[in-house]
Amino acid sequence: MSFLGFNIFEYLRFLRSKKSATLSGAIVYFTLIGLVPMAYLASLTLSIIGKELGEVLSPFVYPELSQVFLYVIQTAKNLGGVGNAVVAIIALYSSANVLFHLKSSGEVIYNYYTKNSFFKRLISILLTFIIICALSLFFAMCVALLPLLNKHLNPYASSALNILALLIAVFLLSILLNFYVCPYRITFSEVIYGSTYTCAFSLLSSAVFFIYIKYFAIYSKIYGAIAVILVFLSWLYLIVKAFIDGIVLNVYLMGKSLRRKKTTLKRAKLLKAN
Hints:
2 strands, two-stranded antiparallel sheet, 1% strand, 274 residues, mainly alpha, single chain, 10 helices
């Protein structure tokens, strides 16, 4: 089955060969470990402009996950305030584990390995710091603009703007991380398809997932008090899987493009020989 030259079954076989589900599960684990350190660093960033992390995140968090985020934010507050350099350094190192292992996952998918783990660790720490600061300030700016927009817009338009802001953040982050995980130099055109897939699938699957949780699932009856944790982990897996699958899509399309170029070159040589 193919669509505009894209063979869906071939891509699904390629996706399975890259162990995307296993890699996604590993990244979810390291993300879970780094949640509180990341929240702590985001809180420090926002404190510079007099904002609270809970205030900034509340318009963008699904109600079903609010308990988890409140717990993470409160735990991050307990780590200490501004000026605790030791805690900040440890938090940054712990947060960077996510990007470090994401880079390793990219090497597995691209089948192109680098040996300099120290440099990889250093880059992951620097990029983690940049991403946390940038996202914190971006969402703080969005929250600051919301009261002004609400004066002129109805609630549906305001919700649409929230979704648009989230869409922009996810898309830009996906593009940045796609460049980061690739072990060699690539162009924007080679990451745009995977980034678009990640953005679209993560938001669509999140919407469907929480509609299902709200109206059809019986998590709370089966799992009781830990139901919210399982819901959060399931949602986080969907987001990470969307990103990993987006990387695999980029690699798959690059391979098809390379094969087409080789075929064209062979045909050109045959025509020239004849």
